[in-house]
Amino acid sequence: MTGNPNCQIWLTSALTESDVPKALTLCFSLKRVLTCRKVGVITSRQLPSHLIESLRQGFEYLFFLEDGRNSAGLKEQDFIKLFPLTLKPFEMCVFLSPTMLAVQNCDKIFEECCSQRFSGYLLTEGTGMDVFVIKPSPRVFENLMKVLVETNGLGTENYIRAWVDTNNEACKLLTSNYNLILSAQSLPQSGGEKDVLIVNTRNLRLDMNIEELGLFTKVPAFQK
Q: What domains can be seen in the chain, in order of their start residue?
């Protein structure tokens, strides 16, 4: 059981000007490894129009944060972690931080969730919620927002994690091959790169040539 690929989507975010080239590079890397799913981006209407147009050119779907739905007054960085719940046309979304890059085709993350009849809220690895799978549900969204209104939105990420921990029959942790924290000092051991599907570049210097790290050869870089 693999679900319907047309109802499954990769998501990332581009809320600031500096996020745009990162999000586009992630998008290009997913397409380079021949994903069968569409790729969407959550963004803000506050971005300059030329950057919004760049996002339109790169992504199949563009979603603007709706302030009216943010009844808890969350910061945008917190709200984007709940926003995919509202995307009811889709049966499953995989959210990736804009610092992530696909090294190999990683569509099997959708297939694994479907084969296990994943019915939970999200899967996540490590801290920061850089990778998570979410099953859209307006009902769950409204319930979470009510709780966060009562707590003034404090500790949003901790609350989500606690919710997942108490519903662990419907959730599972992602293995590190979906979220390898990449740095010049901590590369995988020789041969280990064959198991790596998605890498996290948040610890890399801006001027570092990612091709020199040896995990892939042609992830296109978006130039400002």
A: 5-175 (3.90.550.10)
